[in-house]
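Q: Structure tokens for this one, please.
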Amino acid sequence: MKYLQLLVLFFLSNFCFSQNLECGDLLEQYGIELNKVEFTGCTPGTGQIILEADYKVLGKDSGEIERILIEKFGMGKLKFVCCGWEPENGKRGYVDNKQLKAINQDYFFEISMFANAEKKSKKGGIEIEFDRSKIDFNLKVSILEI
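A: Here is the predicted structure, written as tokens:
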């Protein structure tokens, strides 16, 4: 019974913290212009992550989007590691948004881009695609409470 009460309390507290936020295209909702990205979904987060929105970036546009994320938001340069692309040293970008701060002073955006370079070979196995223009990238925008 205690576990059920704790679970209910957790969900209620999470609802209260995020009641002024709507899951959806977070870039559009908060006026962050980033062309050539396609919104694919949003989910409620857990712990410090309040909401997470996912976007797709075509490989041919990945260099341009990476450059913008580095210049505007301070994300680390993408580096090929093992089987895909990720920000160097795990450095994500951050956005200080006035509209979001008006809801809660402890909220801010975290933004990151990554890609899995594994693909099926013609023989049915797995191979690595090193040409980043041939793979789709994922862009993740999270609202965090810190």
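A few notes: The helical segments are 2-18, 26-29, 62-73, 98-103. The mean pLDDT is 84.
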